Structure formats: structure tokens, C-alpha cells
Amino acid sequence: MPKIKIAPSILSADISRINREIKEVEKYADLIHIDIMDGIFVSPTTVDADFVKAIKTHVPLDVHLMVHEPSEAYLKGFFDAGAHSITIHEEACRDPLRQIDLIKKSNVKACISIKPKTPLGRIKKYLDLVDMVLIMTVEPGYAGQKFIASAMPKIEELRKLKPKLDIEVDGGINPYTAPLAYAAGANVFVAGTSIFGKKDRTAAIQEMLQSLK
Question: Residues 104, 132: contact at Cβ < 8 Å?
């Protein structure tokens, strides 16, 4: 199993003071997870590449594009903004190979995600090309949703197929659900409300890490 990583999601942070919010989680965060929504693939819209560019942190930026058919020019905005990894959705792209290739050519880690009801078989052909797979444990689009445990068999199957691959989970992750995902084979945990929704963010991360021991 690869190293456990905690990725606080700024979807639940106060974006008007984002650099101060991130400063509160930097010490224990392995990634900063940034959800980008376009109002097409998912109903809400969120921040853009210019916002990401203004983030000041030494923690790698994990950009999750809930975006319909991200173009080369669109992706370039996030390359220029300093993204460490970019996740596209299989369901949002006619030919995910095109976006994966563009991301990798820019020396950014390429990742792919699927929604809770999308079968793992839809992305098996990309597993040797990507650096990480994100298995959504809620329907993408909104923070604070309930964890969907029925996604766990996909994680178990994926871990058997790829013992060394980073497997990320996002949605309803907290100290009670994270161990379920970890037991299934996940090692990268995106958490928004359960970290930024707490007054003491450091204690919240430490509680999650403790639940994974």
C-alpha cells in the first residue's frame, strides 16, 4: 500500500481568506485539493485558474476538474498556476487520452476520476498511464454529502489491479468513513467539511490520521 496522504479540500474553506485557511492545515497536509466546477458537468461553478495562481503554499496543489471537455488552453491555465496534479473525469471527456496526454506533456501528474455509479471498467485502459485514480464517494458537485459505501468494491478491485497506485477518495470523508476506504485500499483522503468545518483544523487532521492507524 502506498503512503497515506491527507488532502484538505478548500471547497469547505473560506475562499476570501484562502491563504490563511491553507496556512492552518499546511503542517499536516500532503496535498491541497482544489475543486474546479464549470456549471456544465456539474451544476455549481467555483474558482478558476487565476484563483489557483494566487494561492501561496509549499504543499502540492491537487486540482480536480469537474469540467466538461477541458481544452488545451483551459488546462494550460492550471499548468501555469502551478498545479502539481490534475484530475479529469472520465464521464466529462469524449477521449480522456487526449487530456491525459496534454497533462503529462506539461510535467504535471495526470489523474482520472469516476463518479459513484460509473463502473471501474470504464477506466481500466487508462490505469497504466495515470499517476492517481480518484474514486468519488459522493456525487460530484457539492460539499457535505453523505459517504456512499457502495463505492468500496471498486476501490478493492482497483487496489488488486494496481498495488502501488495512489487511490484517492473524495466525498463524505471523516474519521468514521476514512477507515472504511482505507480498508478497501484507498491511500489518499480528500476531506473538506471534516477539516475546514472544524475550529481546530490541526486537531481534525490528527484525528483522521489516528483513525487510519
Answer: no
pLDDT tens-digit profile of 90-102? 999 999 999 999 9
Taking the domains of the chain in order of start, what are their residue ranges? 5-211
CB 25 within 8 A of CB 17: no
Helix (H) or strand (E) holding 145: none
Q: According to the CATH classification, is domain 5-211 in 3.20.20.70? A: yes
Residue 11: which of 145, 149, 180 has the closest Cα?
Answer: 145
21-45: average pLDDT: 94
The reply to whether 170 belongs to the active site is yes
Q: Of 201, 176, 181, 193, nearest to 5 (Cα)?
A: 181
- The per-residue pLDDT for range 49-66, each reduced to its tens digit, is 999 999 999 999 999 999
Mean pLDDT of the chain: 95
- Catalytically annotated residue among 14, 35, 131, 166: 35
Kindly report the pTM of this predicted structure: 0.96
Given 38, 62, 166, 170, which residue is catalytic? Answer: 170
Q: Which residues pair with residue 38 across a beta bridge?
A: 45
What span, in angstroms and rounded, lies between the C-alpha atoms of 135 and 123?
11
Q: State the DSSP H helix or E strand holding residue 58, giving kind and residue range, or none if neither.
A: none
